């Protein structure tokens, strides 16, 4: 009998979290759900606890956790409910957990990711902001803990799927990589007309249904900027070895260009359950629930360059990677604040980029290369304060 992989899903109530549970439900013989976490949405997490009956649940918002605990008791469920951000850290490193799906949105997920890395877990990383903030320290924790880091972002999963299992060969093999981007909902709109777009328009992505923060990031292409930084760390590349091309059909999920100019691409219907299933089953392959790709009914696959005038935020990725250590954490913090302000109706869509660029310029970090992750989290807080001040001056 094979033993089942014991899972902790951080951010279980979100888009990636629910897609993960959808894949897991197809393979009861392979996976056991040990812990599910959410932030503040009690009804969603309670429904998951009813279905999965895990040993543990946690909510980072303590008041929500108290309410969930009350309802769990009332429903007679077996789950122990923990509370606060520290509970997520404890569950990510728990001895009865083999694999951690990191599907929290934002830098808030970094402490739990670090804990999973240091505890040597199999770490399925959707939470790209954690790696953008953690950078070298995150990767050092993975090595120190002997963790297995598996990318869930579809582009990074594509690159990973195009590479051999032996990481030692990657540097010799890769000339550069090309991340594909859909271009989001505003790819063909006049950039001058974007000042007035609403949050709902920005979140209406043509090819993917996702959480609101990443949907706004896709519309500005800051999502791709974060992914360039993420790829730099996952695959140990120089900034100029990471390139981006717009591919509106989202069928080719990314490409590796080898030294000999052979190009390897990974394709499939746009469905996050494919990279999630691969992360869960690697190196094996399991059913994901995704639709088959029908080559005979595909639209033409097209590729175009991202224009700086339309997507200026994308280019901040390389600026930040070449800037002083910690610059990518500053960029991420600014963007989280700017997106929250946009979703709240406090900031115009075009002003997201202005806020990010101005914050990056106002706060060149002075961190040494060995700075601990606590210093990066302090820098994250400092950058948020600077960004909020910048945003106040840009307010509608
Ligand atoms: P989402 O908003 O749908 O879900 C976010 C989850 O994080 C929820 O469970 C929420 O409760 C939890 N959360 C939010 N704030 C928290 C906090 N402060 N502390 C603890 N938990 C918190 O987001 P999503 O679309 O599922 O994205 C999750 C991550 O995966 C993001 O980093 C995103 O960039 C990445 N990602 C998502 C997709 C996608 O298709 N949705 C694709 C690639 C990468
Ligand atoms: Mg992606």
UniProtKB/TrEMBL annotation:
Pfam families: DXP_redisom_C, DXP_reductoisom, DXPR_C. Residues 7-135 form the 1-deoxy-D-xylulose 5-phosphate reductoisomerase N-terminal domain. The gene is dxr. 1-deoxy-D-xylulose 5-phosphate binds at residues 128, 154-155, 182, 205, 218, 223-224, 227. It catalyses: 2-C-methyl-D-erythritol 4-phosphate + NADP(+) = 1-deoxy-D-xylulose 5-phosphate + NADPH + H(+). Catalyzes the NADPH-dependent rearrangement and reduction of 1-deoxy-D-xylulose-5-phosphate (DXP) to 2-C-methyl-D-erythritol 4-phosphate (MEP). NADPH binds at residues 13-16, 127, 129, 211. This is 1-deoxy-D-xylulose 5-phosphate reductoisomerase. It is an enzyme of class 1 (oxidoreductase). Keywords: Isoprene biosynthesis, Magnesium, Manganese, Metal-binding, NADP, Oxidoreductase. It comes from the Bacteria. InterPro entries: DXP_reductoisomerase (IPR003821), DXP_reductoisomerase_C (IPR013644), DXP_reductoisomerase_N (IPR013512), DXPR_C (IPR026877), DXPR_C_sf (IPR036169), NAD(P)-bd_dom_sf (IPR036291).
């Amino acid at each position: 009998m094979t033993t089942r992989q014991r899972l902790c899903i951080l951010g279980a109530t979100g888009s990636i979290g629910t897609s993960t549970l959808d894949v897991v439900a197809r393979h009861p013989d392979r996976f056991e759900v040990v812990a599910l976490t959410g932030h503040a949405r009690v009804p969603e997490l309670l429904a998951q606890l009813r279905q999965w009956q895990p040993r543990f649940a946690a909510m980072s918002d303590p008041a929500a956790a108290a309410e969930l605990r009350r309802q769990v008791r009332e429903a007679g469920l077996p789950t122990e409910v923990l509370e606060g951000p520290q509970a997520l850290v404890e569950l990510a490193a728990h001895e009865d957990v083999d694999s951690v799906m990191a599907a929290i949105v934002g830098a808030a997920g970094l402490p739990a990711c670090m804990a999973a890395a240091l505890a040597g877990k199999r770490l399925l990383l959707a939470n790209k902001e954690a790696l953008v903030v953690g950078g070298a320290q995150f990767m050092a924790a993975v090595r120190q803990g002997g963790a297995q880091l598996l990318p869930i972002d579809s582009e990074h999963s594509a690159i990973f799927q195009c590479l051999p299992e032996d990481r030692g060969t990657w540097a010799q093999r890769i000339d550069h990589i090309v991340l594909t981007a859909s271009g989001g909902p505003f790819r063909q709109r006049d950039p001058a007309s974007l000042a007035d777009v609403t949050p709902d328009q920005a979140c209406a992505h043509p090819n993917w249904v996702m959480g609101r923060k990443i949907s706004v990031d896709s519309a500005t292409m800051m999502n791709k900027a974060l992914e360039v930084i993420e790829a730099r760390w996952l695959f140990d590349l120089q900034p100029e070895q990471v390139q981006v091309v717009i591919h509106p059909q989202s069928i080719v999920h990314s490409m590796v260009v080898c030294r000999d100019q052979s190009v390897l691409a990974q394709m499939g219907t746009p469905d996050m359950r494919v990279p999630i299933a691969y992360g869960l089953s690697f190196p094996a392959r399991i059913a994901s629930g995704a639709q088959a790709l029908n080559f005979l009914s595909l639209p033409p696959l097209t590729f175009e360059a991202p224009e700086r005038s339309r997507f200026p935020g994308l280019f901040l990725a390389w600026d930040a990677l070449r800037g002083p250590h910690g610059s990518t954490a500053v960029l991420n913090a600014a963007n989280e604040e700017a997106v929250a302000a946009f979703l709240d109706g406090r900031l115009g869509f075009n002003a997201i980029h202005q806020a990010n660029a101005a914050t990056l310029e106002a706060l060149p970090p002075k961190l040494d290369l060995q700075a601990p992750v606590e210093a990066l989290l302090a820098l994250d807080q400092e950058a948020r304060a600077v960004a909020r001040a910048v945003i106040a001056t840009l307010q509608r």
